[in-house]
Each structure stands twice: as C-alpha cells, then as structure tokens.
Specification:
3 copies of one chain form a homotrimer. Chain A has 458 residues and is of the alpha/beta class. The first copy, chain A, contains 14 helices and 18 strands.
Chain lengths: 458, 458, 458
C-alpha cells in the first residue's frame, strides 16, 4: 500500500523534466498524467492508498496517514501535542483508537461492520460490548434521512458517547429481535500529531499551504486536500530548488490541529506569511471556488481570484460562509493572508460514504494543481513588479515594440505590455494588476517574464 | 397641566421594573404603554400638555416648555445666553414675547385669534395696533395656497415685521370693510434658554441626544422630539443607573440654539461624543428615516442603519437633504458622529396647524423609542466587541456548540455565533458587524450578551 | 503665413475686454469668435497657417511650428536636447529633414509627391534615388486597406527605412513599368526642440498644459492641441495678469519629447504641479472625452469630470486606454495629477490625410476652450474652499438667506449655497464638491464667488 521508496530519485528526475517547461500546457499535463499514473505517483493513487484508513482527530489512523506523506516528501517533520496540553482556549483530547466494531443480530448476521466501512461507527465512540433490544439499539443509530442510501459521517466532539451510522434504508431493514453491540475502541493519554515542512527560500517571506487529515474514508473531504498539498510540494522542490520564497506546508487534524499549530508558530507565521491557502475538497470536476479572507483584500484573495479568472463555474464564498481551517487562520488577531481553495465545497456526497472516487478524479485533482501551480509560478516571478526606469522604457530598441507606426497595425501584446509596465510601480501586487487588466495570469506572467529578462521590470 | 410630581418616585419603580427585562418585547411594550397611560406619564400626554404653549427662539413659551421637562427629569440644568452675545458667526437676538393678537373687522368679528391658534401670528411679529383697509391688510396675510384648509407656520428671522397667517379659505372669506390689527408683542433684552443634562457614566465617552423647543403649537415638528428625548433619559436612569457610558441631553431652540451650545461646549463634545442623534419628527406612524452624517461613516450612521434593518418603510436621506440641527452638529470642523433620526421628515401636515395629534400618536412615539432603546442597549453592552482568546474559542466545552457533528444538524444560532466571534476584533464596531452579517440588532445583541457572560467576548 | 505681429498689442486689449466678463456666456463666445476671425487670431486660422508644414520628432518643420507659437506667446523659451543625449531610458535621435520626394513613372508621371501631401512619405525615411521595378516598388508602399480613399500616416521609429504612403485606390492605379523613387531627406546630429513657458503666479502651485508638435499635415491630431494650448495661455495672461497659481505650458514632440522634458524637470514638476492636462484631438465637434489618470483620483480627474458634467456625449476612457503623453506624465514614480483631454480620441479620419478642416472647426476648438477656461476660472477662485466660521454662518444678516421662513418658499439657491458651505472643510477640493452635489461647475463657481466676496468662504 505504501509508495515504492526505491524509485523516488528516479521519479524526481522525471518530474523535474516535466515541470521545467515554462508553463503547464495541455501536452505537459498529459505527459505528467501518464508519468504519474505509470509510476503510481498520481495524486489519485495516493488518495486511493490512504482511503481505507480510519482517521480521526488523533490516533493510529492519522499517524499512518502522516507517515505515508512523510515518505513522499521527507522534509516533513512530526510535531506532537500531548493529551491535556492547553492550546489557546482548547485542551488536546485523549487519543482515540478503534480496532473493530459491529452490530450483531441474535441470528449471527452482522451489520454496520467497521471492517467494511469505518463510517459505520460514530467518531470517538467509547468501547461497548452489550446485548440490547432492537428498540434500545435504534436510539444509537444515526442516518441521513434526506439521503436514504447514504451512510452519514458522524463524530462526537469530546463527549463520551457511542453510536452507529447506517443508511436510512439499512436501518429500516434491521430484523426484529435482540442485538449485540460491539465497539473495540480505547481512549488513552497520547498525542495529537501534525506534520509540517519548511522549504527555505532566499527570503523569509513565506507561502503557506495547509490541509487536514482527520476524516475517515472519504475522498474529496478530505484526502483530496493532503494529496494536492504533497503534489505542490513535489513541484516546488523539483522546479524551484533555489526558490525565492520560503514555503510552509502543514497537515493536521482540522480545527484543534490548526489551533495547536498556531499556538506554537503564530509569531513567525504572522511576521512571514504573505500568502496562504487552506486546501479542502479539491478533487472533483464540478466547479472551482474559494472563500475570501476576513477582510477580503489580501494577496491570497487577489491571487486566487485572478488564477480563476479564465476558468468556468467559479464560485466565490464570503468569509461568512467559511467552514474549514480558514476559521482559525483568519480569526481576529491572527488574520493571516489566506483563502480556502476548493473545487466544490457544497455537494450532495459531502460527509457520507458516497464521497468516494466517483466524486474525486485525477482530472479533478490536476485542475486544482494547475491553479496552485499558476500562483506559485507568479509568486516566484515576483510579487510587486517595478519598472527600472522613469517614464516608459524604450521598447523598440529592445525589440519589444514595432518600429513602424501605423494605425490598426499594433498587435494585442502591446496593450498588455504597456499596461503591465504602467502598473508596475512596486506597490501594486501582480495579482491586483491582473485584476485591473482583467488578464489571465498565464498571459500576464509570460509578459512579466519577458520584461524581467530584458531588465525592464524587476 | 404639569406632571403630578408626587408620583414620580413611585413611577420610577414601575418604570425600572418594566425596563429591567432584557429586551422590549411586545408584551413589555404593552405593559409600558398601559402604565404610562394610567399614570399620565405617556409621551403623548406630555406632548398634549405642552401643545398649547406658544414657543419661539426665545421667550416665556420656550422657558415654560423647558421647565416642564426639568420637572420630569430634574438632572436638566438651565443655560442662558444673553441678547447681544456673539456665538460663532451669530448674535443672540432680543427676546420676543406675545400676549395676545387678532384681526378685528369693523363689525366686531375677530379673525386670526392668537388665543385660538398661535400659528395665526407670524413669529417674531412686532407689536401693532392700527386700523387699516382690507386691501392693506391682505399684504400682511400669509396663506399656504397649495393646502387651502391649512394655516401655515411662518416666522420672521431677525427682521422686524408683522403679519398674520390664515388658511387660504379663511382669507377668501374675510368680509369687505376696515379692520383693526392688534398684536400685543414685545422685544426686550433677555436670554436664549437651553436645558441640558449630563448623566455621568463609568467612562468619559458620551452618547448625545439633542432636540429643539422653538416651534409653537405643532405636534410632530416639534414636540415629538423633546418628549422622546425625555423618555430616553428616564429609560437610561432607570435601567442603567450605573451606565458604562456618559449621556448628554440637550433641549434648545433650533439653529441658533445648537450654535450657541456648540460655541460653549465644542471642545468637550468633539473629544467625548462617540455617537449622537438629533431627534425630530419622531411621532407619526408612517415611516422610519434618518439623515446620514456628512461623511456617512460614523458610529451613529451604522447604529441607526442597523437599528432600522428589520423595520418596514425605512428611508435614508443624504446629508445634502439635512434640515435640522444636524446642519450644525455635522458642519465642517465640528463633524460630530451624529445622525438625525425621524419617522416622517416630509409629510403634508408639516409646518401647518394640521401637524397635530392626528399625526402624532403614542404608538408612533413608542416606535421611535424602541429604536433608540435598542441602540442604547447595544452601546451599553459594548461598542467594539473583542475575543478573549486567539483562534476560535472552544464552544462545545462551554455548552455553546453541538458535541455531535453531522451535516444538516447545526442550528441557525451557530452561523450567527461563529460570525459574531469572527468579527469581534476590537476594531469593528458592533453596528458595522450587524451590517456585515445583515443581522437585526436584537438578535445580535442577545448573542453578544451570551458570549459576554461566558467570557468569550469582552 | 505668419501672424501680423504689429497688431498684437491691440489684440490683447480686445481679448482682455472680452474675457474680463465673469463667465463665457454665449454672447461673449460669439463676440470672441467674431473678433478672432476678423483679426486672424482665431485658433482655426493658426491651425490653417501651420497645416502645410511637415513636422516630425525633430527637424526644421517642428522648429518652424514652435517659432510660430513663440511669436504668438513670447513667454515661450526654447529648450534643446542634443542628438545622442540620454533621457531616462531613451536616446535623442538624429535630426531628420526632408526637402522633396516622389515616385516617378518611366513615362514621367509623378505619384506620392511630397509637395502635394507630406503624408505620402513614411516619416524618418532615409534618402533614396533609384530606379526600380513596379514589383519591387510595391514592397515600399503603405496603404490603409480598410479606408481605400485615405492616405495613411506612417512613421518609422529609429530604424532607417524608406517608404511611400498612398491610398489603396491610388496604389491600385499605378501603371505597369519601371519607376524612379526619390527621397531628398537627411539625417544629422542636431537637436530635439521643445518650447515651454512658465507664467509665475502668487504661489508655486502649478497648473500644467502639454501638447505635441511632431505630426505632419493633420488637423485634429495634432494641430488642435497646440492651438488650444496657446489660446489658454492668451486667456490666462489677459484675464489673470496676477494669477494666484503658476502655469506651465509645454509644446514638444510626443513620447520622446515628454520623456526628455520630464528628465530635466521631474523634481520641480512633481513638487509643484497640482493639476494638468495633455491636450490632444480637441478640435472636432463630435464628443468630449478624457483619459483618467493612473489611479483616477487626482484633482485633474475631478476637474475634467465635473467640467463636462453638463455637456452631452461625454466619454471617459480608462487609463488602460491612454495613448498620448499621459503615458509618460502618469507613469509609475512620475504620477503627475494629469488627465488627457480630447473631443474625439477615436475617429475614422485619425492618422490619415482626411484629418483636415472638415474634422476640425473653430466651433469645435471653442468648445474645448470653454471647458479648459471653466477649469482655470475655478482653480483661480480656490481649490480647497473653507468656511471662515464654525457651524453655519449667519446668512440672513448678510442678505444671503430669506428672513421669512415658510415651507415651499425657499429658492433653489439655498440648497446649493448651504451644501457648498457644508462641504467647504478645507480638505475637499472644489471639483469633488461639484461631484458630490452633482452641480455644474459654472453654477457652483458663481455661488463660490458670492460666498468669497462675503467672506463666508476663503
């Protein structure tokens, strides 16, 4: 199930080759897809490897997941927060682990078997081994009535209870009689685990990526986020081995994980991070969306808005509709320049067993990858372009402007070129310029590269 | 005609009882109405008491009006500005008093009798006692041609003239012949009177209420304003005996009164006032309206805008359409954070004898009272809410968040709770948060109270 | 062809007489038109005088043009930048001069004769005297295919080439056979010439007008701009001999001229200029238009926007659509508070021989003159009006407010008067006030004059 470690150097060479081309055009994407598929390095395969593991806020499943990614990107370091430790207003809970669980009818037929689908057991259920009547059992069964064929994902936060999740239809077919309910789970003093990696660049300025690893067997929420984060990390290492910017990556359990992480790194994060993304539900093919930061005017807001400028079906969510770790990263006094990035945030399969690989595809993941790649490429090119001279530069002597002036004979590039220069005042970020010009990032960056190479912009 | 002073302590106890309930719900409002009616303490009764008095910029009528309110709220102190005193660009005028006036036909029939309606005499008319022809008389008669049954309210500002006001129909029926015109008025060196009160709170920060007492027998413009101001004052004294904020109340003649008052208190007002309202035309039931401050972005603007969020028929007037003392309070260099608050500012009965108790009702006044009460309650709760911890607080351990997570099972309160917390950064005023969340002030404040009591916000 | 110099003093007296009236109403404009026509001083006549001259970036034609204006406004001083001099990122090119040019068919028939229309020769063509086949010749012929009857204006920028311009129809009628191509032009080390004038006022604050003189025989682009600039200069000298503000006028070749000028005067221009206009294509009667400054919020933006408030067919161009010297004046780090002002910026005759006096008329020029005059009048009146007292001034004692208050009897002036005062806080520029009040500049200024004369505003 784990990655073939012996191939990793070989893989890197290939990835590097594929990524060194200036932009990820369709051919490159196709090549990359083929390569990743054949080498089992595709994001979708990583997600499939990890799908069966029963993750939670804490415990073995989460650790196993982090270990997988640590092998893929050895720069990850493990952080541990002990049960009982105070992190801001919160307390690190006990570790929860589960080995097995089921409901067994007196006839011997088993239902809600943990081994078949770990969503059957309410998260953080306490251990139980008891015979009860069907009537009593029904008090401990959770279903999603509006989706009668789906098993819902239900978790108990920090209150000891137990329960099973069934589809409404499964529940209705439970035979009469008595049942044994069995959950082989345990609570113990232990740790909350987080993996983080810092790829140091030439400046302290940091780009931040976060995703979470606390959900059991669901594909879009959440495996899509962590696998995209790892693909971005591979891309940066291979394509920007001497990156201008520093990159911070973190994989943690949602909410309490990000709170714990912030409690440890808030000062450095506030002082260094210039742009960040929380990656969640990034694997489907339905739409592209993002959640604004609290005030909606950070570099991350401009970056994601303009990276999506030429894509169809883009949806912007207000900060009022946030739902993941952006809740912490953008909270008052923390206020990191960060947006949440997703493909579909609201979809029927969300938080049910239907959130599987019918929803998440390699194509969906690659769509998200291309968006993040585009932003990274721009950030590495330069955040605040600035002209090297007063007034317009003399472009014709540098071969960048026609030497023959006749109306109607200017090419389109002139408009983009002159306007990119006109707004390169060293104070307006490149994404805001893209917005002002309503110009797709790809085009703008191609032009920016040319002007940098000619020393017209810096 | 004056209030039963002996009951005042008893009344206070009742008022306090009624107001100590958290919010002025419909039952409370009904109880308060009944109590006020039975004890002759209703705002409408105060207005009816004061209606017959002939007020003007200066003189006995205005003093009598101020004395009435000083008995209702003994904290009022009288300020006097002497005739001839310079206040900014203005000079305090002579006192004008009037005892009687009428037009008498040679047949003995009298018209435009002061004793029947004091609007019949042009304000600041000089004394006259003369026989004149009907033809000459007509030069001194003012009517409102577009409203032929109404007697208009006409005043001369600082130029000595005389005149009578009739309805157009009355004028047309004046019999031929000769007339005696009689006005027993006088000008003398005297004072311009102002009543003001300061209820000291725990901080110097001031909330300011102003209204004016210079109009003769009209109900909405102007008695509604002063009676509402006095009801607010009673409410604050009984409900916030140890108020957090300081409250400044002032009753004065319009324009020159507010200019005189500002000339004396500008420095302290500019340094302390954080929110203010000029109360005018607050007694009808037709609409709710307000006039923005000069720049439209003060706490008062946000407060009144959001206090009216869930009311029907709300009208916002631009500062360009101001017409009362907000002209002075918001003038360049003064720029107090103040809005004018009204029910209807433009209505057909305005400045005629039809502005009476068909227009102004206790229900209309109570509507205005509820709006101002809501704002006071919010201000006392806290202007700039701030979280007590970094990141989101742990709400489930405080019983403020479900301990079981399943999609579709969150209550509506969660949205409001989480978003109020998210914007409580200590820099965004509570009214602006209400606007951001598009949430009625009542709901927002209920939530704010809960979060304050749990020490999540301060 | 040149102006009758002996009349100039006489003319000044007349111009002064015409301009001393408060505002340029229709009668005045008519008088001014008659006067200008009869004295050969009309802008249109200046343009007609200059039309035949073959101007370019450098050379005799441009010098002759500048000399003409220097006689009209003797305050102009000549600046010279030597061939080879570096100005920011640019190098002053060699002087180009041309005496004669034509294409001669072996039959002796001549085409594209310089003496008939100087647009026939590609600007900056190198000398040539050679016999070639028709086939080869066609490689050197430029036409405007989408306008088959028009001769296009084509220029080579700093690359030595040669060519002729014909209408598409002329080209198609060229007879078969051999041709002699003859261009008697020359390149030499010389100068780039600029004329500028500074009319010193009582303060250092400068108003800046720029136009360009590098286009051969075309009327709207460009002669309209320079002649308007000279008319404005005459107006200011005659009407504001002791102007409050300093005025800077400059005539230069487009692009390299403004870059050269900025390279010499950037510091003083940045520190002194408060409002500026680049005048281009200001002679037709079709529309009024302007190009915003880079950020769109300078005094010039407010000035031109409100000066056009009551005119029909106004078009605002984004800075992204700039095309003339505003490109330099508003570039990053220079950022002068300047807009381009035009009548029509995009018109079919643009950059062809059809841009003649069918397009440009005296009426069109006078329309532009009136707009600029209006702005100058406002600027001289005062940029930041400020009240001389706190609170509203006592207007009735100054005869500026009715002394009798009755509803519906206030005149319209009251609204304008009170609101102009209300926004005269010394921080809001008069044009922004015009925008806030949505009030034509003429009305606003009339009111401002009254209030200044009464010492209510300063």
């Amino acid at each position: 199930m784990l990655i073939l470690n012996k191939n990793i150097n070989f893989n890197y060479v290939f990835i590097k080759f594929l990524f060194t081309v200036q932009s990820l055009n369709d051919t490159n994407v196709q090549l990359l897809n083929i390569f990743m598929r054949d080498n089992k390095l595709t994001m979708i395969n990583w997600a499939k490897d990890l799908f069966p593991i029963c993750r939670s806020i804490t415990g073995e499943g989460t650790r196993k997941t982090l270990t997988y990614f640590e092998k893929l990107n050895p720069e990850f370091k493990r952080l541990k927060f002990k049960t009982g430790q105070k992190v801001f207003d919160w307390i690190i809970p006990k570790e929860w682990n589960i080995k097995n669980a089921y409901i067994e009818h007196s006839s011997g037929t088993r239902f809600a078997e943990f081994n078949k689908c770990n969503l059957h057991i309410v998260g953080y259920s306490k251990p139980i081994n008891r015979n009860i009547s069907k009537k009593e059992l029904l008090n401990y069964i959770y279903t999603q009535k509006d989706q009668p064929n789906s098993i819902p994902y239900v978790t108990s936060y920090y209150k000891e209870r137990w329960g099973f999740c069934l589809s409404e239809n499964q529940k209705n077919k439970l035979p009469d009689g008595n049942y044994k309910v069995f959950i082989d789970s345990s609570f113990k003093k232990g740790n909350l685990d987080i993996s983080h990696a810092i790829l140091k660049g030439m400046t302290k300025k940091e780009i931040f990526f976060s995703s979470y690893v606390c959900h059991p067997s669901m594909a879009n929420n959440e495996l899509s986020g962590p696998v995209l984060l790892n693909a971005i990390m591979l891309y940066i290492k291979s394509n920007y081995p001497k990156s201008k910017l520093t990159y911070r990556f973190v994989l943690l359990p949602e909410t309490i994980g990000s709170i714990a992480y912030l409690s440890k790194f808030l000062k450095v994060m506030k002082s260094n991070i210039v742009c960040g993304f929380n990656l969640t539900c990034v694997g489907d093919e339905r739409t592209y969306s993002y959640v604004s930061s609290r005030k909606g005017d950070t570099i991350a807001d401009y970056a994601i808005k303009t990276a999506l400028l030429d894509l169809p079906n883009v949806k912007k969510y207000s900060f009022l509709d946030r739902s993941s770790d952006e809740r912490q990263y953008c909270s008052p006094g923390i206020d990191l320049p960060l947006c949440a990035f997703s493909r579909s945030r609201k979809y029927p399969e969300y938080h049910t067993n239907k959130d599987n690989f019918d929803v998440v595809t390699q194509e969906g993941l690659m769509g998200s990858f291309k968006v993040m790649k585009k932003i990274v490429d721009v950030l590495e090119l330069g955040i605040y372009p600035k002209t090297t001279t007063f007034a317009e530069p003399s472009l014709s002597k540098k071969g960048l402007y026609t030497t023959l002036s006749q109306k109607g004979k200017y090419d389109d590039a002139r408009w983009l070129r002159m306007n990119l220069i006109a707004y390169s005042d060293g104070k307006t970020n490149i994404f805001k310029i893209a917005e002002l010009l309503n110009e797709p990032l790809d085009n703008l960056c191609k032009e920016y590269s040319i002007l940098k190479s000619k020393k017209i912009l810096k």
